[in-house]
Design brief:
Chain lengths: ~525, ~525
């Protein structure tokens, strides 16, 4: 992955009509850590490697982003055969190299599309047959009734999240409650839409639990400042924190939302990624369990995606959003937002069908079913093994502590950085955890993301690391390198007085770099 | 295509936190005609047909939207074989049913992607190898030098247009010049981002030409009202108007933009769709032709897409944007906007590679090349034939006049609606041309879009119709039906006094319907 590298000093002249003075502040201020300073630095290194500069490593290891196939995870064969058969609509020929079941499934989708055209725009909300499969999936998963008209097929979950935040934020007094730590799409979009972040802190001590008391505290602090709290985001299983929420805790959030009359945004893209003995419970199911007035009153948007789970089909950009208890007018506005982009890509839409309606023992041949299950299991086992490996290995590093990775694809360990190291970072004008991640990258080629990008309690430092390297040995090696590097830092700075820290010749980063 | 049908009376209670009082006015106000009232009405009809209601037609004919494959246009085989081979990465097996050239091309793309993973996120701006192909394409087409870092791969052209308008509109005084008639994504987004539309009128009398005088007039009228004109959009070939701009006219716009220091947005998605003896000239080429100071000063974003041309791959959602003479800071902001959605879908990205780097006589076998050319030619011939057919047939209808369709996929004829018919429409609270299109839809099942959605000189009425039905006979039949219907209207209302018009029992549409 090599991308654009921005010069550190942006042109500040008035030669251009589009410049830092003429672009909205809300865009300039919005940050997106996962693709931020660390990604920029990595690109710079890759460029330098291309032109012959030597580093202490051969390649960059991307432990910064939930991108499984970029780290060697294989796609599920059945799904890809279906998608390929949708692109080249020639069942007879396809049957020569793909399983008949895959070809039949492609036929099932194409037969519901005008002229069998995977290359046509669909209606803005999506292909009806896939929307129905999503409806069936939620009904079966949660024992509820779903209206297929409430389903919107999206380019990944992020598109749905974007639409909903845009609808929810009317003016700069509108606030959205987000967990801290959070996945930075929320902070980035709230800033972009000129709203207010209302952070509620997850409790690291109790495995990143969400408590009613903390929700109330955050809410009242915000309203006291005149913020109109419009919605609350929850991410379950947690990103970057990996906790799996209990139905009981979900019920508390629902009651809170009902009492305060706020909208719930449920980011549930990791629902298949649970590595401990806990069961995923959707907000939709918890709502139903509580019954009236909650079940028919609390407004909810739930998001799901092809990109995570066991498919890891990030590049296909497929996802869905289900709206529940949402006003018709708001539906019309969501529809209109979607219409400007015409529709989500059709391959991603069909991918969503495959996500929610996987082959079953009854629907396909034994051979196809067995292969599907085997591929899925291999992926799951790897994720689970590495989730445990990470927890264990990180806890063995001096100064690092990490909660059990229960779910999702990340660990979010706490790191106690020496005072002198923090001082050095501050003098350079960057967060200590950003410096730590930049240093690791330069030294080892490993990309991890600083906790400051996700939010953390003041005075604490963390980083996010994925469990996605598709080889346990390589994962182990990466963790060892992080361990060695960290111990080096510790021994180098632990006893150092703040005053003895020498600044490097040139600041490694200026503050503008960070806003990217 | 059956989608959500909204009830005509939206809930106005305060039960919901997200309602018509809590959503931004700019979202509520923004309209998108192509997917607006007509599409809603069609969905309603399709629903009713599903439940047994009889209409005077068997199916809806979608002449409302540039969606070729929905009307039977076939995809190009080579391209689909490449994409399928990217999804199922098994060259040996693929060679059994696809051409070796297609499999090789897939290998070319995959070999430039980490782990050959079409299912991984790419860098936010896109897959580097495709960005390079776009660079080569523009260089060859225009005889210019392009920096591949200035290319952004997008989900269709609409995504790039969205990013640029968002960057260009800082506050409600910022204006964007748009042609009238225009493609409504511009008006919809300008409204959504709370900017001002600065309309400049294309001259219907001279085949929808853009004149310097009109640009000046529009500009000065806007600035006199305190509008800060930031950018100018041009659509070439025109949508909905079908004109092909000359290099000379482009040079005038460029000089205008330079003088006024405004940003140019060049919507060039129909560059392959030219049916008369004119050559496409890009703004980039015209800029280069003018030389300094224009060529290195005028800021430009050009958009291109997979959806149109001869591929018609709307559903893949692929496109690109090239920024030229754009400030590094603005680049960084564009990059950041793109990063929140992570990346465009990879199949669409590879599709862009195939758009800009088609197989040549040298690069593939004769058989593959011949088939490619034949398929392309068949599509082109059909489009051209129907473009001429439309122009001719429409001009034969009483009250209808239509400029020659030189390019793109639409005709935008003027229609002289009888005074009594207009009165009836106004009494119903809708535009006369909307009523005309709704009536045609109800009577014939043909969907066309009213001119009011694209903008038109006050007091004139138009509609937009596509030339995409993949069968000339069917197209002819549709045009005949429109002709008959129009003549009915004429004879029914021509001599009618306004006072004699009887209102139907119930308004067919309320005004809220229109805002969708």
């Amino acid at each position: 992955m090599i991308g654009r590298v921005f010069s550190r000093n942006f042109t500040r002249t008035y030669k251009h009509s589009l410049n830092s003075h003429t672009i909205q502040e809300s865009i300039i201020r919005s940050e997106y850590a996962v693709r931020g300073a660390i990604a920029m630095k990595a690109m710079e290194i890759e460029r330098q490697m291309e032109t012959g500069t030597k580093f202490g490593f051969d390649k960059i290891t991307h432990l910064n982003i939930g991108n499984p196939q970029d780290l060697g995870q294989k796609p599920i064969s059945f799904n890809r055969e279906v998608l390929a058969s949708c692109l080249v609509d020639d069942p007879e020929r396809n049957r020569m190299i793909y399983s008949s079941d895959a070809v039949d499934r492609a036929d099932h989708y194409l037969s519901h599309i005008n002229h069998r055209a995977a290359g046509a725009y669909s209606d803005s909300t999506g292909i009806r047959v896939v929307m129905r499969e999503v409806k069936d999936f939620i009904e079966k998963r949660d024992g509820v009734e779903v209206n297929e008209d409430n389903i919107y097929l999206t380019n990944g979950a992020s598109e749905g999240i974007t639409y909903m935040l845009r609808l929810l934020i009317k003016d700069e007094n509108d606030g959205i409650m987000i967990p801290i730590p959070q996945y930075p799409i929320y902070s980035a979009l709230i800033t972009r839409f000129n709203g207010k972040q209302v952070p509620y802190y997850l409790d690291e001590e109790t495995g990143w639990r969400m408590t009613y008391e903390e929700l109330e505290k955050a809410y009242f602090e915000a309203t006291a400042k005149g913020v109109n709290v419009k919605a609350l985001t929850l991410i379950n299983p947690g990103n970057p924190t990996g906790q799996v929420m209990s139905q009981e805790d979900l019920e508390k959030v629902i009651k809170f939302a009902h009492e305060k009359r706020i909208f719930l945004l449920a980011d549930e893209v990791y629902q298949k990624n649970i590595y401990v003995d806990k069961e995923f419970c959707s907000v939709r199911k918890a709502l139903h369990g509580l019954g009236a007035p909650y079940s028919n009153d609390v407004e909810l948007a739930s998001f799901h995606s092809l990109s995570k789970g066991l498919l890891g089909e990030c590049g296909l950009r497929g996802g869905y959003m289900e709206l529940h208890n949402v006003n018709e007018f708001a539906h019309a506005m969501a529809y209109k937002s979607k219409a400007v982009g015409l529709c989500s890509n059709i391959i991603g839409q069909i991918g969503v069908g495959l996500l929610v309606n996987p082959p079953t023992e009854e629907s396909v041949s034994k051979e196809v079913y067995d292969l599907y299950k085997k591929e899925e299991q291999t992926i799951f086992d790897g994720l689970k093994h590495r989730a445990n490996l990470i927890t264990e290995k990180l806890n063995n590093i001096e100064g690092v502590s990490c909660n059990q990775v229960e779910g999702a694809m990340y660990a979010f360990p706490k790191i106690q950085l020496p005072r002198a190291y923090c001082h050095l970072a501050n003098t350079l004008g960057i967060q200590p955890d950003l410096k730590y991640c930049l240093d690791i990258l330069e030294k080892t080629g490993i990309m991890i993301v600083p906790g400051s990008g996700f939010g953390q309690e003041e005075g604490t430092f963390h980083f996010r690391i994925t469990n996605l390297v598709n080889c346990s040995l390589e994962m182990e090696r990466a963790l060892d390198m992080i361990g060695e590097f960290t111990e080096d830092i510790m021994s180098q700075y632990r006893y150092k007085g703040v005053e003895t820290v020498k600044l490097p010749h040139e600041p490694i980063l200026d503050s503008e770099y960070q806003t990217i």
